[in-house]
């Protein structure tokens, strides 16, 4: 029994160990019933230089990596191809900067829902690694500390 439990724990941890990216404080903003988009936020820290290149979730028709930045007097949001994750430095995906947009939502996202999300990373000269996690939906008025 202990061997089976240990094997199950190792299998569950394998994607995180393989990707060597620590994912913390991931959350998704809840939506009103008619909303077709929401934001996904988290902190990523990689043990080696890598890039976040793709995100997917079964609740969204499309998931895009976005960046918000000032252009003149206007804050604008636009998709980016990847986010660089320098070795050992935390990168926050947060409102007002880099974040993930979940678009063409298939249903309302309610506080407390657990949403599957897959992150794909690319390292120099190596194949892509993936991390799949369950992300909790937080209320519309949620503000991270």
- Oligomeric assembly: single chain
Corresponding CATH architecture: Sandwich
Major β-sheet profile: 10 strands, mixed
Low-confidence stretches: 1-19
Helical fraction equals 10-25%
CATH H-level homologous superfamily name: PCu(A)C copper chaperone
Structural class computed from helices and strand pairing: mainly beta
In whole angstroms, the N-to-C terminal distance is 41 Å
Q: How large is the count of helical segments?
A: 1
Please characterize this protein's 3D structure.
The protein is mainly beta. It has one domain: PCu(A)C copper chaperone (Immunoglobulin-like). The protein has 1 helix and 10 strands. A hairpin with a 6-residue loop joins strand 9 and strand 10. The chain starts with a helix and ends in a 7-residue tail after the last strand.
Which short descriptors sum up this protein?
145 residues; mainly beta; Immunoglobulin-like; ten-stranded mixed β-sheet; 1 helix
Task: Write a concise synopsis of the structure shown.
With 145 residues, this protein is mainly beta.
How do the strands and helices of this protein lay out in sequence?
Elements: H1 2-19, E1 21-29, E2 37-46, E3 50-56, E4 60-71, E5 74-79, E6 83-85, E7 91-93, E8 98-105, E9 114-122, E10 129-138
Parallel strand pairs: 1-10
Antiparallel strand pairs: 1-2, 2-7, 2-8, 3-6, 3-9, 4-5, 4-8, 9-10
Pfam family, one: PCuAC
InterPro entries: LpqE-like (IPR007410), Lxx211020-like (IPR058248), PCuAC_sf (IPR036182)
Signal peptide: 1-19
């Amino acid at each position: 029994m202990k061997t089976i439990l240990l094997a199950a724990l190792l299998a569950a941890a394998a994607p995180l160990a393989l990707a060597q990216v620590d994912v913390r404080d991931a959350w998704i903003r809840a939506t009103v019933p008619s909303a077709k988009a929401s934001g996904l936020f988290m902190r990523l820290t990689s043990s080696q230089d890598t890039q976040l290149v793709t995100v997917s979730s079964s609740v969204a028709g499309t998931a895009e990596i976005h960046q918000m930045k000032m252009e003149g007097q206007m804050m604008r949001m636009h998709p980016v191809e990847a986010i660089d994750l320098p070795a050992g430095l935390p990168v926050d995906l947060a409102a007002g900067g880099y974040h993930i947009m979940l678009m063409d939502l298939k249903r309302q996202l309610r506080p407390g829902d657990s949403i599957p999300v897959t992150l794909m990373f690319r390292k120099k000269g190596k194949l892509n690694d993936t991390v799949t996690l369950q992300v909790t939906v937080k209320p519309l008025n949620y503000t991270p500390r």
